[in-house]
Amino acid sequence: MSAQDGETFTFHLPNVTSNGSDIQSIEWKQTDKNKLLAIIKPQNGNPVIIHQDNRFQFMQNGSISIREVKQEDTGNYTCKIIYKNGTIKEHNISLTLSSGKFYSLTSLIQNVQMTRLLKGIVVS
Fold first, then answer.
1. Ig-like domain location, by residue (predicted)?
2. Secondary structure, 3-state, 49-118
3. What is the mean pLDDT of each run of 10 residues along the chain (124 residues)?
4. What are the extents of the domains in the chain?
């Protein structure tokens, strides 16, 4: 996937078809810069989204859009989705600058299965 400098770039998480009803929380981080981008908590179709950068938009299913992509957006990102049944899915993404003004995004997906006795605890 690629986008030109200054355009909006959207990354749809693969294999995530949930409308949010089975998701407990979603956390986006820019890992190489140790920057928390957002925490998303779906609630009755109206997600509570805690974030600070208005160029980033987050969907209820965990997908991300970055408006006006620029050099500072390059790096590694992690999206951690915690489902109500205790399953955790992590999506590791690398956003890189290629051939001048083009950015490309690659994804490595890790699934982590967890069984938990207590509900409502976010594992980080």
1. 1-96
2. EEECCCCEEECCCCCEEECCCCHHHCEEEEEEEEECCCCEEEEEEEEEEECCCEEEEEEEEEEECCCCCC
3. 70 68 86 89 76 80 83 87 90 71 49 37 38
4. 2-112
Homologous superfamily of 2-112: Immunoglobulins (2.60.40.10)
Rounded CA separation 61/112 (Å)? 18
Q: Which amino acid is at 72?
A: E
Place of tokens 């294999």: 15
Distance CA 121, CA 66 (A): 29
Determine the Cα–Cα distance for residues 78 and 88; give it in Å rounded to an integer. Answer: 12
Give yes or no for a contact between 18 and 75, defined as CB atoms under 8 angstroms apart.
Answer: no
- Is residue 84 within 8 Å of residue 114, measured between CB atoms? no
pTM here is 0.71
What is the side-by-side strand order in the sheet with 9-11? Answer: 9-11, 64-66, 56-58
